[in-house]
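#structure-requests
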Amino acid sequence: MEITLHFGAHRCATTSFQEYVRRNAAELKQQGVAFWGPETTRETDLIALKTMTDASRAELQHELDLCQSRGVTHLLVSEENFLGMMQQNFHKGELYPEARLRAQLVSGAFGARVTAIALNIRALNTYWASLAGYAARNGKHFGPHMRWQKIAKHDRSWRGVVTDLADVFPGIPLYVLPFEEFAGHPDAQLAQLLRSNTPERSSNLWLSKDEDARPQGLNSAQEMKLMATFADDLTWLADGADGLAQLCLMSETARGAAAPAYDRIDERNAT
């Protein structure tokens, strides 16, 4: 049985992707595909990675054995909090500072059964703006502690997150899917992960779109710094990511006339 772990991330249309898979669970089951989303991970010790016990890890392995005995050939596990929590990103002014530690705990839980890793990324300026907007809309208390200058100057980017995951899961394929490519196309994202045709129902699902995509609090210099850093990340990924990861892009047929994500970012930086 193949096991793909989807690490999110937050504000990258992850909830829409999970809902698309959930709505098509019956059809996917006929293909031998099972899905564990937050409704599963958050009812188990998988969401409390630091407090997992030998008993809870053994129970997880038992559940995996049951999946396989029921004819599941591919298990997709999607949980954005595997990377860390949004609150911590705000408080630290850093992109998933505990990603490596939490990935090690996830690896310890699933053992050697993992066959692929997936990660969504997003332009850093709109990622942080989206987190700030989410905090404001939902009355979260971590919004006022945002330190835009620290965020813009911090040297940690998606490249660091990708490297953390690749180091913890050496030799395991790591697929990186940009938000700018796959938001609104959960079917295309699932096709990348399953390497097969996917259901058409709700194929354009996109929940909780940002009401205002403009950066909240970033000045123009800080925004350009984050955009340039993300462009460097995408260039690194497009050049092969030192063999650590594979950048996934939609085909021109599926995408239409739009340019690949890294071209769009470079064009914005050049203007």
